[in-house]
Specification:
Blueprint lengths: L15 E3 L2 E3 L24 H4 L19 H4 L19 H5 L4 H5 L23 H14 L2 H7 L19 E8 L2 E4 L3 E2 L14 E8 L9 H13 L5 E6 L3 E7 L2 H10 L15 H15 L4 H15 L2 E7 L6 E2 L2 E6 L5 E5 L4
Parallel strand pairs: 6-7
Antiparallel strand pairs: 1-2, 3-4, 3-5, 3-6, 7-8, 8-9, 9-10, 11-12
Helix pairs in contact: 7-8, 9-10
Length: 356
């Protein structure tokens, strides 16, 4: 049985009991229940962004109608990076990026088009091949071209290129060069290990020596070769040159420009030669060599070329020139590099500074 209770007032009607439960109903009430409809303006859930998204801010950086629109976020390529090392940026500045003086533009004009007026010839360097370097090349060439030297050189084993076995079977060979009252002679060829030669007498009239670098080692003279150069100079004051015949088809020469500077170099850098015959990491010289070597490879030099060029920087500090010739023409020229600064990341910027 259902009982209906009517309460008169304010044009409203409430109540029914159904199965013992009291449910509230409202007919023509002034305060209707919440519909919880996001599209109902009278609902507490009303949300025009849900009901009609086009009318609201999407906060999307790629939405042209949003207050959050940002083409640099949505499409970075369309915006200025404000990076001083970004050639396409209005903020490009080679001085800030590379941290070097205007000489950099002289050597690398293609890098400097962000500068409206790059210098045409700013403070040109001294002749990269001064008289002393020319004289060193001439002296090394004349001695090597002596008939006694070329004859002994022709008897040296042929070096296999690094990509042609059996290079791993090759050992170092070498000989000394003597000068007795202007007469040049050589000692018999000695055979050593894959990384060195047996001891020899450097106390009597020895002015130079020659040894080879078989593959797969380095083309250029090593730190051990520089150390040996100083030792031999201390044994024989007339010792000037150490030749290295390399498996790359070139012949290198360490030529002493300043014997005192060479001796001081090793006195000031004890232990700078490692057990692998290279400059030892953890020493001032070794760490500098490593950093320059890596920086050169980052600039596109091959590992062998980077090794050779990094060696020349060490030789500069040791009072020694590094000369080079191909094995056919025999005309030694100084090879060198010059540090012109560092880029924004601290990498060394280096230019070729060879004699022509």
């Amino acid at each position: 049985m259902t009982f209906l209770f009517l309460f008169i007032g304010a044009s409203s009607m409430y109540g029914q009991i159904n199965g013992g439960d009291l449910d509230e109903v409202c007919i023509n009430c002034d305060d209707e229940p919440d519909s919880y409809n996001p599209c109902d303006p009278l609902s507490s859930s009303y949300d025009p962004c849900v009901c009609n998204p086009q009318s609201c801010d999407s906060n999307d950086p790629c939405d042209l109608f949003s207050n959050s629109y940002n083409p640099c976020v949505c499409n970075p390529q369309s915006c200025d990076s404000n990076d001083p090392c970004d050639y396409s940026s209005q903020a490009y500045n080679y001085d800030v990026c590379y941290g070097v003086d205007n000489n950099y533009c002289y050597y690398f004009p293609q890098q400097c088009y962000g500068n409206p007026d790059p210098p045409t010839n700013p403070n040109p360097d001294p002749d990269p091949c001064p008289a002393a370097s020319i004289a060193a090349g001439v002296a090394a060439t004349n001695l090597f071209n002596n008939n006694a030297v070329t004859t002994t050189m022709s008897q040296m084993p042929v070096l296999f290129p690094s990509n042609e076995p059996p290079y791993s079977q090759q050992l170092e060979h070498g000989f000394n060069i003597k000068n007795v009252n202007g007469v040049i002679s050589t000692t018999p060829i000695r055979e050593g290990t894959a990384t060195g030669l047996p001891a020899a007498d450097y106390t009597i009239n020895v002015v130079a020596d020659l040894h080879d670098h078989p593959a797969p080692g380095t083309f250029a003279p090593s730190a051990q070769d520089l150390f040996a150069l100083n030792t031999r100079r201390n044994l024989m004051s007339g010792f000037t040159t150490s030749y290295v015949s390399s498996f790359d088809g070139n012949i290198y020469a360490l030529y002493i420009d300043d014997p005192s500077k060479l001796n001081d170099f090793f006195n000031n850098n004890p232990g700078c030669v490692g057990s692998d015959n290279n400059f030892k990491e953890g020493t001032t010289v070794g760490d500098y060599f490593r950093d320059v070597n890596f920086d050169l490879q980052r600039q596109g030099y091959t590992p062998q070329e980077a090794y050779t060029r990094a060696t020349t920087l060490i030789l500069q500090d040791a009072g020694v020139s590094l000369l080079k010739t191909d094995a056919t023409t025999i005309n030694f020229k100084k090879i060198d590099i010059k540090v012109v600064g560092n880029d924004i990341n601290g990498n060394t910027i280096i230019i070729i500074n060879d004699c022509n």
